[in-house]
């Protein structure tokens, strides 16, 4: 895993950071912490594209694309790509496979 970057999760509008609570509800009725499952409802498996910032624990109520809540992804992905490029290559194919 990358060590130099810092991945943070917070509302892109007001910067409220999730506190680990179950503040999100799916249309199926399930209430859960959307960041535990990357916005996939654990009950019906629906993948939510947007996440609303909950007002009760101190958020602003705005809805934003779920991916926009993750800050530092560019650096994390760049580090993972660099690690993959510098990792030893193992051959898994026979001479007839490509």
3D structure, described in words:
There is one protein chain. With 98 residues, the chain is an alpha+beta fold. The protein is built from one helix and six strands, in the order ββββββα. The chain has one helix at residues 73-86; strands at 8-9, 24-25, 31-32, 50-52, 63-65, 70-71. The strands form three sheets. It has a two-stranded antiparallel ribbon with strand order 1-6. The longest helix has 14 residues, at 73-86. The model has no long low-confidence stretch (mean pLDDT 88).
Q: Key features?
A:
98 residues, 1 helix, globular, two-stranded antiparallel ribbon, 6 strands, alpha+beta, single chain
- Separate helix tally: 1
Helix content: 10-25%
- Structural class determined from secondary elements: alpha+beta
Strand content: 5-15%
Report the C-alpha radius of gyration, rounded: 18 Å
Whole-Å distance between the termini?
29 Å
The counted number of beta strands is 6
Large-scale geometry? globular
| Poorly predicted tracts of residues | none
What is the residue-averaged pLDDT?
A: 88
Tell me the series of helices and strands, N- to C-terminal: EEEEEEH
Q: How is the biggest beta sheet arranged?
A: 2 strands, antiparallel
Give the spatial strand order of the biggest sheet: 1-6
Task: Give a brief rundown of this model.
By secondary structure, the protein is of the alpha+beta class.
In terms of topology, how is this protein built?
Layout: E1 8-9, E2 24-25, E3 31-32, E4 50-52, E5 63-65, E6 70-71, H1 73-86
Antiparallel strand pairs: 1-6, 2-3, 4-5
């Amino acid at each position: 895993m990358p060590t130099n970057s810092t991945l943070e999760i917070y509302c892109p509008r007001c910067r409220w950071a999730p506190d680990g609570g179950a503040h999100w509800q799916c249309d199926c009725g399930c209430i859960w912490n959307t960041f535990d499952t990357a916005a996939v409802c654990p009950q019906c498996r629906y993948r939510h594209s947007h996440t609303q910032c909950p007002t009760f624990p101190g958020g602003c109520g705005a809805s934003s694309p779920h991916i926009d809540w993750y800050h530092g992804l560019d650096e994390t992905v760049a580090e993972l790509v660099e690690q993959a490029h510098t990792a030893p290559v193992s051959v898994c194919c026979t001479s007839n496979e490509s």
